[in-house]
UniProtKB/TrEMBL annotation:
Its EC number is 3.2.1.-. Belongs to the glycosyl hydrolase 38 family. GO terms for molecular function: carbohydrate binding; mannosyl-oligosaccharide 1,3-1,6-alpha-mannosidase activity; metal ion binding. Pathway: Protein modification; protein glycosylation. Keywords: Disulfide bond, Glycosidase, Golgi apparatus, Hydrolase, Membrane, Metal-binding, Signal-anchor, Transmembrane, Transmembrane helix, Zinc. This is Alpha-mannosidase.
Length: 1149
């Protein structure tokens, strides 16, 4: 006890001293800056020097405080007592007392309430039996008197599915179809108040709004107010739910909801997702958090639909797997039949339903493929037609528990012509009138919106005293017929799936720095105004455009890779331009924040003060590092740490000298560095460019400055290389580096690398990983393999959507000539690179103390442009005894258990992986963390494989009309983590809920939010820069700052308000795999996990909040806590529930 108390005491005293010094310096600085404004003579220079000195001292102290605080916290933690600075109601814990931290996970294990989709999968035979008229279902019967007491209430919901890009670009669809659809909607709904319509895609709606005049806008508002037009979901797009990350999913929802609130003053109540290729509970969580009460989903495996129809569970309360309460429940309606078009929505028989799509009347362009055309409704046929339709309605109604029936009326890009409105509403009105005139039929039908339907449903359920069943799980992997599983799109166009995440990380970093810069400016001026030279509006417009590009790409034909080639180019160009534009905002914000003398700020768009250290030349190119010219004058490197954690990171830049020094610009302290070769060819090192890597200690959200100078010969540690190639030793050119080990006698010995935590052994022949040892544990089997999948030889072949591999399964990758293997060893990192014809594969170990040293970095550069109908896979083969179970993430938000089932075809056992997957047994867990979305499977025990790229020559008959052959040189990045588990033996049965470990969370955070390196100009006139340290300590390691997003001014459009959306995600985590050495951060105690009070002022100190108000996830005003709950002065307290995202409307300074 004494031993622990002493450093604590010393640390505490030190903190107090440093803090008072800080206050004093701050006061002095303020006073002296005032003096500076007066005309000064020779004193000026001396004064400036003094300030410089003080600044250096101040920064050094600040950073020391951050480091000290972090280390104190983790030292203090094992005692488990209170007193943690961040958390008021609990305590900080370290892995030493791990089990209490797992109560949440434990509490969730084996929950039996409601329906668990994994159990349904175990139960179903997947026999694809012929169901008759409803091919994938069954014959539905009824007596006819079921509705005598409670009449059937039918709500016909007109809709038009508008893809923001697919066969045409967003712009072309808008010009050719969408604007006409919306214009007609306005006229036709105004004509007849009985007509209704729903609209989902705000990207289109907002574009159209900009085109229409004030009078039309007033008409729109009237229609919305009268309940004739309903905006459903209200997202920027109808988002993909497999590949999209929850940051982007939420951001596109915020963008849409904010637009709706501003222009229409309403909020969406019901969700509508009829086309995404499978459905995720993460989306359900976000919709619920955004204040929606209901949702509709459609693309669900046909066998699951049939089962749910038999059980009358097509309507259910979708509950999060991890939620032990009904808090996350949202009412969900699953459409029972094959599609959302008219033939598949009125009832089970498409041949009949198609006759009630009056857009397909004879003489028009559209027809019914079932050979029976619709007929206009006349006095002569109305009885026969009405009864035919009623029969379908009644059959469909038997699949649901209430007597309210939802019948969508629409299809892709419907109501382009005004005449379609006349045809649909005229004919249906006659049928509705007929029903009204015949009360003996016990049916009422009318046009309605989605919320009309759900209101009626809830009314009926309440009256019946019936509650809907709860359901847990997800709806992947989707199959629409036979063995046609939609697992191809989990990987299609992987280049853009990765570019998406690059934009996402850039956007988040920019949002945070921009918000902080604005807050600092207001504080600096003291009058709440911004600095005149800072292009606030321009930058806010860039930020908005960036948000919208990322949002647009979340569309279910965007990030999925299922658009035509020119549309892919259009998306890619938008992503690329947004990254470029956001970088300007980022650079400019960092510039202002770093300047010691703010009066030196200027904005020059064509020649920014600082620039990122890499260049992306086009939408289809990978980033390329810009070589830095070094001299004896120090070059300033500015590093931004976009994570809320203090981290040791390896910063990598390209320089023009093999000798360089890196020092911390504030303290002058030299940093550990390594010079490596830049390989122009696999065996030829560049003589002009060199890679400089150094270890940077980066406080949370900080901007830190380093100086790089050209050093004397031999000053920096250079990497040493060995080359291997079986049979044919390579000739290596590398004049600045030591090369050895060409084909020596011991060449059969495995190649090995190790750092403090891990040792690895690789094949001398291929360089691929074979064994791994987590020190001090035993040597484990972990092999890396590469394999090819081909496609079926029959008519149905893989395409952009479908994965239809040949019967032979995966074939081991083999090459005619042995690969070149290059091993590099240095003090900062060591790696093994294998150069194969179709890919370059690198496994790297960092020699770092922090969490970065505890995982293996894997990177691939893939090029399969020469191939024909092939998919390349990376497979890990381990000795983990996971049986047929593994876990993959859903949208980076939660983990979902997967079961590999032999009764399903191979392609059905592939799942989306947005950021993580793991295998585990009683004693260990192997996690693969990724920086891009792709397909994942565990086909045999111990195995985990990811699909890297796919090149497919043909269309797969889902409307796209082409294959995927626009492959590019594509990068992928991972961290592989092996962890010991304790108490994991119970993990064998049940649909258990699992979380990533804290170490895995931190590793994933670092992987997805790499430090951003900027370079200042080389001239000696560089103004004085000081580090920017907005946080005094790291956030607890289970709390993630999802975003700090400046909101738009409510009066002045395109301008930032003083309000910022603070989005915090408290992650669930697993403690059975606590790391051997403790982590450098604390986490919240779980004893009171449901009511954890967090003091935001202490969490974000010295960042200050003027006021804090909790709001809904999309920051709608009506979701705000009442004015009385506003917290104008400290303490600003927030409740953070585990697994949950919390949104606050704050004013920050
Ligand atoms: Zn669509």
């Amino acid at each position: 006890m004494k031993r622990k108390l002493f450093p604590l005491l010393v640390g505490g005293v030190f903190c107090v001293v440093v803090m008072s010094l800080y206050r004093m310096l701050e006061m002095m600085q303020g006073a002296e800056l005032q003096h500076l404004e007066a005309p000064a003579g020779q004193d000026f220079y001396r004064l400036q020097q003094q300030i410089d000195k003080l600044e250096r001292l101040l920064s050094a102290n600040n950073r020391l405080v951050v480091t000290l605080r972090d280390s104190l916290l983790h030292r203090q933690a094992p005692q488990g007592g209170g007193g943690a600075v961040n958390v008021s109601a609990g305590s900080a814990h370290s892995p030493a007392d791990a089990p209490p931290g797992c109560r949440l996970a434990q509490g969730m294990k084996g929950r039996a309430d409601g329906v668990q989709l994994l159990d349904v999968y175990n139960l179903l035979p997947f026999d694809n039996a012929d169901g008759g008229a409803w091919k994938q279902g069954f014959e539905i019967s009824y007596r006819g008197n079921e509705w005598d007491e409670q009449p059937l209430e039918v709500l016909l919901v007109p809709h038009s599915h508008n893809d923001p890009g697919w066969l045409k670009t967003f712009e072309n669809y808008y010009q050719d179809q969408t604007r006409h659809i919306l214009n007609n909607m306005l006229i036709k709904l105004t004509e007849d108040s009985r007509r209704k319509m729903i609209w989902a895609e705000i990207s289109y709606f907002s574009k159209w709004w900009n085109d229409i005049d004030e009078q039309k806008r007033e008409m729109v508002k009237r229609l919305v107010g009268a309940g004739q037009l309903e905006l459903v979901t209200g997202g920027w797009v109808m988002a993909d739910e497999a590949n999209s990350h929850y940051f982007a999913l939420l951001d596109q929802l915020i963008e849409g909801h904010q637009w709706i609130q501003r222009h229409l003053g309403v909020r969406p109540r019901s969700g509508w997702a009829v086309d995404p290729f499978g459905h995720s509970p993460s989306m359900a969580y976000l919709l619920k958090g955004a204040g929606l009460s209901n949702m509709v989903i459609q693309r669900v495996h046909y066998a699951v639909k049939k089962h749910f129809a038999q059980q009358q569970t097509l309507e259910f309360l979708w509950r999060q797997s991890w939620d032990s309460s009904p808090r996350s429940d949202i009412t969900c309606h699953m459409m029972p039949f094959y599609s959302y078009d008219v033939p598949h929505t009125c009832g089970p028989n498409p041949a009949v339903c198609c006759q009630f799509d009056f857009h397909r009347l004879p003489g028009g362009r559209a027809m019914c493929p079932w050979k029976k055309s619709p007929q206009p409704i006349t006095e002569q046929n109305v009885q026969e037609r009405a009864l035919l339709l009623l029969d379908q309605y009644r059959q469909k109604s038997r699949l649901f528990r209430s007597h309210v029936l939802l019948v969508p009326l629409g299809d892709d890009f419907r109501f382009v012509e005004a005449s379609e409105w006349d045809a649909q509403s005229g004919n249906y009105q006659k049928l509705f009138d007929y029903f009204d005139q015949h009360p003996e039929l016990h049916v009422k039908a009318r046009f309605g919106t989605l919320s009309d339907y759900f209101e009626a449903l809830h009314r009926r359920l309440d009256a019946m005293g019936t509650a809907l069943p709860a359901l847990r799980g997800d709806f992947f992997t989707y199959a629409d017929r036979d063995d046609h599983y939609w697992s191809g799109y989990f990987t299609s166009r992987p280049f853009y799936k990765r570019l998406d995440r690059t934009l996402e990380a850039t956007l988040r970093a920019t949002e945070i720095l921009f918000s902080l810069a604005l807050a600092e400016m207001r504080r600096f001026r003291g009058d709440g105004l911004l600095v005149a030279d800072f292009p606030v509006r321009e930058h806010f417009r860039r930020l908005t455009a960036g948000r919208r590009s990322l949002a647009l790409f979340q569309h279910h034909d965007g990030i999925t890779g299922t658009s035509r080639d020119p549309v892919v180019v259009d998306y890619g160009t938008r992503l690329f331009h947004s990254i470029m534009n956001l970088r300007q905002v980022l650079q400019s914000s960092a510039h202002w924040l770093l300047l010691l003398d703010k009066s030196q700020y200027y904005h020059n768009q064509s020649k920014p003060f600082m620039q990122l250290d890499d260049v992306i030349s086009a939408h289809n190119a990978l980033p390329l590092k810009t070589p830095l010219a070094l001299s004896n004058e120090p070059r300033s490197l500015i590093i931004f740490n976009p994570t809320e954690q203090l981290r040791s990171s390896v910063i990598s830049v390209v320089v023009d000298s093999p000798d360089a020094d890196v020092v911390d610009a504030t303290t002058g302290q030299p940093m550990a560095a390594q010079i490596s070769a830049v390989w122009a060819e696999p065996t030829q090192a560049s003589t002009e460019q060199f890679q400089l890597d150094f270890v940077a200690e980066l406080p949370p959200l900080s901007l830190v400055v380093y100086h790089v100078t050209k050093a004397s010969f031999g000053s920096a540690h250079r990497a040493r290389y060995t080359f291997h190639r079986r049979g044919n030793p390579p000739a290596v050119q590398s004049e600045h580096f030591q090369v050895s080990g060409l084909e020596r006698p011991e060449a059969d010995a495995p190649l090995s690398l190790s750092n403090k935590h891990i040792s690895i052994w690789s094949s001398p022949e291929t360089g691929l990983l074979q064994k791994l040892r987590l020190l001090p544990g035993p040597v484990r089997e972990v092999q890396v393999q590469f394999l090819w999948y081909g496609t079926q030889r029959n008519q149905d072949k893989s395409g952009a959507y479908l994965f239809l591999p040949g019967e032979e399964g995966a074939q081991l990758y083999s090459s005619s000539e042995p690969p070149l293997v290059r091993v590099s060893r240095g003090p900062v990192f060591s790696d093994i690179t294998s150069c194969f014809r179709h890919f370059t594969h690198t496994v790297r170990l960092y020699h770092l103390d922090g969490h970065a040293g505890r995982s293996l970095e894997i990177s691939n550069m893939v090029d399969i442009r020469s191939e024909f109908n092939r998919e390349l896979v990376m497979r890990l083969v381990s000795d983990v005894a996971n049986g047929n179970r593994f876990y993959s993430d859903l949208n980076g938000f939660q983990m979902q258990q997967r079961r590999t089932l032999q009764k399903l075809p191979l392609q059905a056992n592939f799942y989306p992986m947005t950021s993580a997957a793991f295998l585990q047994d009683a004693t260990s867990r192997m996690s693969l963390l990724s920086a891009q979305s792709q397909a994942v499977a565990s086909l045999r025990p111990g195995e985990l494989e990811v699909v890297l790229d796919r090149r497919l020559q043909q269309d797969d008959n889902r409307g796209l009309g082409q294959g995927v052959t626009d492959n590019k040189l594509t990068a992928s990045l991972y961290h592989l983590l092996l962890e010991d588990r304790r108490g994991g033996a119970e993990e064998v049965g049940g649909a258990s809920v699992e979380h990533m470990s804290l170490l895995a969370h931190l590793t994933s955070l670092s992987l997805n939010h790499l430090p951003i390196t900027m370079v200042a100009p080389s001239d000696s006139q560089v103004p004085k820069l000081r580090p920017f340290l907005p946080l005094r300590s790291s956030l607890p390691c289970d709390v993630h700052l999802l975003n700090l997003r400046t909101l738009e001014d409510s009066q002045e459009s395109d301008s930032p308000s003083q309000e910022v959306a603070l989005l915090l995600h408290r992650k669930g985590f697993d403690c059975s795999s606590a790391p051997q050495a403790p982590l450098q951060c604390t986490w919240s105690a779980q004893e009171e996990y449901s009511s954890l009070q967090v003091d935001l002022d202490r969490l974000f100190s010295p960042l200050r909040f003027h006021s804090v108000r909790r709001s809904g996830l999309t920051l709608l005003r009506e979701d705000d806590q009442p004015e009385s709950a506003r917290q104008p002065a400290p303490p600003h307290v927030a409740r953070l529930r585990p697994m949950e995202i919390s949104a606050f409307r704050v004013e920050v300074a």
